[in-house]
């Protein structure tokens, strides 16, 4: 399990090392109001690779499911920096069609992440915990979708260029896939909580059963 941890950290660093110089070289720059294909590729590739690895390798799946869901959820608190999008929209540096939904969505998820990690990451709140994770994924999907197509939708609004160059370009190309993977792992873990709780309750019923039949 420790080896998997090292491999995962190494792959994460490798992707960051790819995203950083690629951004510096303008690979993701979308100043011509076209579809942000490079950004979409950078955001989706790590997620697809994770799903393939998770499905194909039982040992990796076991490692992923052994991670602490509270820590993974608390890490989403970083998303309060989405307030930056709202501020940049006010100065017409980012288009409103992207900045407002993405910004306020990230603020909502980031602000509630500590509470969810502290109070809801347990079998007793399984449904609410999963719902919050899905809302977090929806926010990321909406943000990337609007960001990659913003230039095609509103010509007279502010350009999306700021999100495709450093430092903001690291958000869709590195942090979006990272946080999406965290959400997916938490959902997969929570789906097993019900079975785990049933397994702990069942032995008690078996022990008490002879006592009830004896009377």
Task: Provide an overview of this structure.
It is a single chain. The longest helix has 28 residues, at 126-153. The N and C termini lie far apart (50 Å). The chain is globular, with a radius of gyration of 21 Å. It has helices spanning 2-24, 37-56, 58-65, 69-74, 83-90, 96-120, 126-153, 170-191, 193-214. With 215 residues, the protein is mainly α. The chain has one domain. Residues 200-215 have low confidence and may be disordered.
Mean residue pLDDT: 88
Could you give the order of the helices and strands?
HHHHHHHHH
Gyration radius (Cα, Å) is: 21 Å
**H/I helix tally:** 9
Fraction of residues in helices?
Answer: over 70%
Categorize the overall geometry: globular
Structural domain count: 1
N-to-C terminal Cα separation, in Å? 50 Å
The number of strands is 0
Proportion in β-strands: under 5%
Low-confidence stretches: 200-215
The chain-level structural class is mainly alpha
Report on the biggest sheet: none
How is this structure best summarized?
Residues 200-215 have low confidence and may be disordered. It is built from 9 helices and no strands.
List keywords for this structure.
single chain; 75% helix; 215 residues
List the helices and strands and how they pair.
Layout (H helix, E strand, L loop, with lengths): L1 H23 L12 H20 L1 H8 L3 H6 L8 H8 L5 H25 L5 H28 L16 H22 L1 H22 L1
């Amino acid at each position: 399990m420790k080896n998997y941890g090292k491999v995962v950290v190494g792959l994460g660093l490798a992707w960051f090392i790819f995203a950083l110089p690629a951004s510096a070289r303008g690979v993701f720059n979308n100043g011509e109001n076209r579809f942000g294909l490079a950004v979409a590729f950078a955001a989706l590739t790590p997620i697809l690779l994770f799903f393939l690895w998770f499905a194909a390798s039982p040992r990796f799946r076991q490692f992923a499911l052994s991670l602490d869901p509270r820590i993974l959820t608390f890490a989403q608190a970083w998303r309060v920096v989405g307030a930056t999008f709202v501020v940049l929209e006010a100065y017409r540096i980012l288009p409103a069609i992207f900045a407002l939904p993405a910004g306020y969505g990230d603020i909502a998820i980031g602000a509630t992440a500590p509470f969810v990690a502290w109070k809801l990451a347990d079998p007793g709140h399984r449904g609410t915990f999963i719902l919050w994770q899905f809302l977090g994924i929806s926010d990321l999907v909406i943000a990337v979708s609007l960001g990659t197509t913003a230039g095609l939708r509103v010509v007279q609004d502010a350009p999306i260029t700021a999100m495709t160059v450093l430092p903001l370009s690291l958000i869709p190309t590195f942090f979006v896939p990272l946080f999406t993977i965290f959400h997916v792992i938490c959902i997969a873990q929570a789906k097993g909580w019900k079975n785990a709780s049933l397994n702990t309750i069942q032995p008690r019923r078996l022990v008490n059963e002879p006592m009830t039949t004896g009377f």
